[in-house]
Amino acid sequence: MIKNSFFFLLLIVTLPAFAQKKYTISGTLKDSATGETLIGATIRIQELNAAGASTNNYGFYSLTAPEGTYNIQFSYVGYETIIKQVKLTSSQVINLALNAKGNLQEVVVSGNRPNNDQITSPQMGVEKLNMAQINSVPVLLGEKDILKTITLMPGIKSGGAGNAGYYVRGGASDQNLILLDEATVYNASHLFGFFSTFNSDAIRDVSIYKGGMPAEYGGRLSSVLDVKMNEGNNKDYTVQGGIGLISSRIKVEGPIVQDKGSFMISARRTYLDLFTKASKDSTVRGSALYFYDINAKANYHFDDKNAIFISGYFGKDVLGLKDIFGTNWGNSTGTIRFNHIFSDKLFSNTSLVYSNYNYVIQSLEADDGFKATSKITDLNLKEDLQYNLSNTHHLKFGLNILHHTIDPGTITSTGSSSFNNISTEQRFGFENAAYVSDEWTASSKLTILYGMRLSGFFLEGPGTFNTYDAAGNVASSQTYSSGQNVKNYFNLEPRISASYQLNDQSSIKASYNRNTQNIHVLTNSTTSSPTDLYVMSSNNIKPEIADQVSTGWFRNFADNNFEFSAEVYYKWMQNQIDYKDGAELIANEDVESQLTYGKGRSYGVELFLKKKYGRFNGWLGYTLSKTEDKFAAINNDSWYPATQDRTHDLSLVGIYQLSKRWSFSGSFIYSTGNAVTYPTGKYEVGGLTTFSYSERNGYREPANNRLDIGFTLEGKQHPKYHSSWTFGVYNVYGHRDPYSITFRDSKTVPGTTEAVETSIFATPIPSVTWNFKF
């Protein structure tokens, strides 16, 4: 009797759930003025608190609800909210275009997510920037720069003046994955790091993940910088650009077919070489010093379910001293992407991606002429799918097959040069991965994002592969034919993060993630440089592995005008790589014999306060951290500060709307100096002084600090065109941040040693740019 009563009760409780019909609402959200899709827009059913969704990286959304009549809210930061009443008696497709708000103050600092997303989202360690925010931050010579702006965020540290490299939560600069429309950018710097490869005119969305990375990303230990280009205006033709002190830029976009397809082409070039032509110095006159880059993208929507996107980037730096030497380096990328909507719940993105980075160094002198070249080329096939199982389970899964070709270095002599030709063998490898993740809304307060990534690396012939002992001597050698497998590595990379909402205004979060890296950079500099050498995991080099745990408290207050977060993290790293003292890296067939291996750890706390709305807005970020390395061959196998270790890192950014036409912005930074190795003794051989070194990174450079300011004057309103002037001063009070410190015998006090500090931009640097749009 009791048993029958239980089953009867269970039937009564569950019958309404089975009888209640559910339907799906799906579609795409776009900008009404340009037709560009909106990433991270929010869709919520007002009558159902737990029912909501956001658009993916391609503007698509999907959510399910029981049969009924609802008010559905479509919102996106900086755009007017639309509330649409829907009678849900069947699945529906609702495509909408949102209007941008006229008040630009509302989009200057806020990211691409709704006000409470910081509270409800399980994602940790992510920063999203829109281009209005990036374009408001004052930078060197007025060149708006993505990389310089992200280093103003907590946990992300600049490589210093004259460097485009950056460090994320203690990781080295090569442990950051930089993607431009899904293509890897291996060297994201122009003019040795003074500028980045990203032309802000061509960019529409920037996200950086510094912890708790989603399972669809992999291949680097520390961070992912995901940059997406503009798709182009499918409503009207426009021309915009700017003319500055050292560079000019232009962008043209418009429809291919009205409302169905569009294109965008953007180009930028510096003209420092024009000044060298006017030099009175005959050696300098005619020398080369410039960079250029081109971004292009086109798309076509066959119907509501099928669309194709083609994009590419090409950039190059050219630097040369007339008749003495020359060097050039550059990136080229290409992406073909096809979107298909299988159903109102299943979305597919298929991509074929090409990436190439190369550099050439050439001596032009007749007696010692030579040319050194190196390159890395990738071809990647990706399949990413998103399936909205229900309003509580949003699945992502996919795979990618990535082929690497690395030409480590070739030196060819020219003319009567005394140099010998050197050619190192190319290396080939596959880096494949499959992943699955689920964002599970477990309750109205708890959301969990969990997933797994399986990565596999396969090193292949042809070539001769040596195995080295601890002393760097060849222990064995074996030759492999084309396509023959040399070495395999497989790694499971679990990812999990969770958010628990304490109330409407605050939440706590925690995350754990593991990442592996099979492409490694060998360099003699502290950050990325054009002559970095790329090597793959091999029979000597194991994949680098990093595990990171983090937790944090997130709080919105003052009617969501302010956001505050405090995150604590700990990261431990295995199979870290360093080179031995006196190592020769370029065109060395036995370069792996020059390496030593160890481990690292990094831990710290990040504080972030941001004001999003009003005439005055901005943010304050502070990081307190420690980063250490441990190598058996260095410092007697003891922990020592890594080069990128900085105890304190502070950034302050403010933007103030003085009037409808005038706005002011300023940024201030302060950070502990890099850990460096200084000489502890010296001796004289043949009349030449030689310095001896002991403890690695046992000293500190002086602290860095700098103030930059900028003003923007908007032109008067005109129906056919718009213009503005941007004025700026970089390093307002002329602080001398150290670029390098070297040692030499004192010229004034014989027998003593003096340190010589070199600083770049030790005086205020003004800039002015005229911007236009037709």
Protein model, in words:
The protein folds into 3 domains: 20-102, Immunoglobulin-like (Sandwich), CATH 2.60.40.1120; 107-224, Ferric Hydroxamate Uptake Protein, Chain A, domain 1; 225-274 and 293-773, TonB-dependent receptor, beta-barrel domain (Maltoporin, Chain A), CATH 2.40.170.20. 5% of the residues lie in helices and 57% in strands. The strands form 11 sheets. It has a 22-stranded antiparallel barrel. A 5-stranded mixed β-sheet has the order 9-16-17-12-13. Strands 1, 4, 7 and 8 form a 4-stranded mixed β-sheet that branches.
What attributes characterize this protein structure?
774 residues, mainly beta, 51 strands, 5-stranded mixed β-sheet, Ferric Hydroxamate Uptake Protein, Chain A, domain 1, Immunoglobulin-like, 5 helices, Maltoporin, Chain A
Q: Quick one: how many beta strands?
A: 51
Biggest β-sheet strands, sense, barrel = 22 strands, antiparallel, barrel
Give the CATH architecture of the largest domain: Beta Barrel
The count of domains is 3
Poorly predicted ranges (pLDDT <50, ≥5 residues)?
Answer: 5-19, 103-115
| Large-scale geometry | globular
Distance N to C terminus: 82 Å
What is the CATH superfamily of the largest domain? Answer: TonB-dependent receptor, beta-barrel domain
Question: What is the CATH third-level topology name of the largest domain?
Answer: Maltoporin, Chain A
Supply Rg. Answer: 28 Å
Structural class: mainly beta
Arithmetic mean of pLDDT: 84
Strand content: over 45%
Helix amount: under 10%
CATH domain class of the largest domain: Mainly Beta
The tally of helices reads 5
Oligomer: single chain
